[in-house]
Amino acid sequence: MRTTAEGPDFASTSLPRHLARGVVGFGGLIGSFTLIPVIGPVSLLLLPVGALALRGCPMCWAVGLMQTVSKGRLRRSCKDGQCKLTVAGHERHARGPG
Which structural domain, as residue segments, surrounds residue 54? Predict the structure, then answer.
């Protein structure tokens, strides 16, 4: 997790990388419990693999997914004590040429 001036950053560098971490993470967590009847307590070794892939927190992974999807698309600007969220590049089209 990185920390920026705007708060913690849970985003990955790319969406496919973030989704792959989710597949490994949730697969490890789910597999660790569902495989107990098949291979016994050894399946619990998948638990730390899943936790490590999700960086310890499934909710943090979900927040990171939202940050990864919106990265570069949303901009926050603050003026005179008021902040607003705008779509990147939207101002250009609203002003027109010139």
Answer: 2-72
